[in-house]
Specification:
93 residues, rod-shaped
């Protein structure tokens, strides 16, 4: 349970850190959508936000997901080994 809480905290911190630059970039693009006032800077910002989200979601999100999967696998293997040791000790009696 402690591992789940730690991973949730890491995910929330990562989410906030990744969202702050995205919001700064997204505000001019959202204004351009709302007011239909496109210029070169907002078009470039829209393209950049697409690359940013791809990098964050696929790149960094994939790294966090693989870390999470590896950690849960190690914990599961550790629990199975401990369970086998406990079962072996109780059968020896």
């Amino acid at each position: 349970m402690l591992n789940g809480i730690v991973l949730i905290v890491i995910g929330v911190i990562f989410g906030w850190i990744a969202a702050i630059p995205a919001l700064i970039i997204w505000v001019p693009v959202a204004r351009a959508f709302l007011h239909q006032n496109w210029n070169t800077a907002t078009i470039l910002a829209a393209i950049f936000i697409g690359f940013y989200f791809f990098f964050v979601a696929v790149g960094l999100g994939g790294i966090l997901t693989s870390f999470n999967s590896a950690l849960w696998t190690k914990l599961y293997k550790g629990m199975v080994v401990n369970e086998n040791i406990i079962v072996s000790d109780s059968q020896a009696i």
